[in-house]
Amino acid sequence: MKSEDRLPLEGIRVLELGTLLAGPFTGRLLGDFGAEVVKIEAPDKEDPMRIWGKQKDGHGLWWPIQSRNKKSITLNLRVEEGQEIFKELVEKSDIIIENFRPGTMERWNLSYEVLSEINPGIIMARTSGFGQTGPYKGRAGFGSVGEAMGGLRYVTGFPDRPPTRVGISIGDTLAALYATIGSLIALQERQRSGKGQVVDTALYEAVFSVMESVIPDYLLAGHVRERTGNILPGIAPSNIYATKDGTYIVMGANADGVFRRLAEAMGTPELAADSKFATHAARGQNMKELDFRIEQWTKTMSASEALEILAEKGVPSGLIYSAKDIVQDPQYKAREMIIDVDHPVLGKFPMPGIVPKLGRTPGKVKHPGSEVRGKHNQEIYKGLLDYSEEKLHELMKKTII
């Protein structure tokens, strides 16, 4: 096999513990690029993600995406025999992903200190609401709480209404991205030292880290950033604008050169020389009047007509896409951002493509998440740990696997 045919993370084995979003999404990202991700589920309890969200014919439509490329085994980590088996798996693995409340792994005698004695190179990616240290470490923390305490929800929405949420579980997703980055950094460092380490990701910190300059805004300038709806104070034009066919387009033309092109697109090039709009500061001060003028123009045509004119003039703009718009868009198709994966029950299953795009060794979706808990028990326990058939039957009788 040529090196270009191998996925970048082939040869890396990941043990994925935990449920729902942040931990499993980390496993999905690593699996997309070739890591062997072994998802461990309890033998007596189904992962709630299997039926989370919308369903078709009794099958959850999120599970095949979140669990793609993963192998599924069952193991009871709450009992000593299951914990000892897990330690055998750790000896042959590179990364552990877990998103339990801090202290859970320690109660199971599976702390990093214990596991690193077995495998000094093991990396433990730990995602929790508030991290492994600090006065809040023992608190339960979901993504929604991380979004709130990380500062995101305070600035999301309109000023005359209560804070709102982003339409997806962005706190969990951000935490998963940081856990993935941290795992890859730890793998790189391990090449130098030969040692693993803990990657400690807190949901609220993952959100807080993308909150731009809100802290110096407050501490150095005395300004608390508030909810501003679809605008950014002092940045204009940067808003959504209604069109003749009853939809909205989003547009950003606040740079001087781009605004000149927008004025030309509108058939009013003189706007770019008007003292009320000629500079960045002036446009910010006269935002309401400028947005009104732009929307009076966009309302004279359909969204597609307006976007065509704006594209020709080089003005950043776009339709606010629904799922229907996404699946019809040629850019998504050209970039293979919606891929069909063979599902054993549902047939061709559409799911998001792989991000980022690597030029020489791109990632790959080999299969959707396993519909059967423990589907790979034989492969992992017999093939990797060399267990006999008799031992497997005994473990099943005792509900260890």
TrEMBL record:
GO terms for molecular function: formyl-CoA transferase activity; succinyl-CoA:(R)-citramalate CoA-transferase activity. It holds the Pfam family CoA_transf_3. Gene3D superfamilies: Crotonobetainyl-coa:carnitine coa-transferase, domain 1, formyl-coa transferase, domain 3. Keywords: Transferase. InterPro entries: CoA-transferase_III_domain (IPR050483), CoA-Trfase_fam_III (IPR003673), CoA-Trfase_III_dom3_sf (IPR044855), CoA-Trfase_III_dom_1_sf (IPR023606). It comes from the Bacteria. The keyword Transferase applies. The keyword Transferase applies. This is Formyl-CoA transferase/succinyl-CoA--D-citramalate CoA-transferase. It comes from Siminovitchia thermophila.
